[in-house]
Amino acid sequence: MIKFLLMVNKQGQTRLSRYYEQVELGKRASLEADVVRGCLARRKEECSFVEFKDYKLVYRQYAALFIVVGITENENELSIYELVHNFVEVLDKYFSRVSELDIMFNLDKVHIILDEMILNGHIVETNKTRILAPLLALDKMAES
Q: Which residues does the UniProt record annotate as the domain AP complex mu/sigma subunit (predicted)?
């Protein structure tokens, strides 16, 4: 099961966070700081899977952004690694070459995309067309 998903830049600033289990706000800040510090400190040659406290972390870097996913022990790391790549491909398709600014200024749309892909910590959709359909419908309604 997916416990959380974070999107952070190279400076360690969180650009997106989504939790699929209850975590107190005070603990979120320290958890995010520890997770980000641990992932940013790793070299590119090192594995993208890290054991961290009660979680396994799967992270992937795209340009200046890191996407970090905290999962349970019994979740498949490679499927989550591919999910992260699929998430970025969907963002690229919608924003046509997504950037950190796209995410910052369209956070609600990024959350819609993420919610179409993950529900209650489980992957529910990976088809790019079906993931983007509700968002494109909303865009079409906003235009008219």
A: 1-141
Write out residues in the chain with pLDDT < 70, as ranges: none
Segment 113-124, tens digit of pLDDT: 999 999 999 999
pLDDT at 54: 87
Calpha distance 88→142 (Å, rounded): 24
Edge-to-edge strand ranges of the sheet holding 55-62: 14-19, 2-9, 65-71, 55-62, 49-52
**Residue 36, both tokens:** 């980000």
Give φ, ψ of 11 to 5 degrees.
-85, -5
| pLDDT for 137 | 95
Q: What are phi and psi of 19, to 5 degrees?
A: -110, 140
Instruction: Tell me how far apart the alpha carbons of residues 133 and 136 are, in angstroms, rounded to a whole number.
Output: 5
Burial code (b: 16+ CB inside 10 Å, e: under 16) for 52-70 equals: eeebbbbbbebeebbbbbb
61 three-class SS: strand
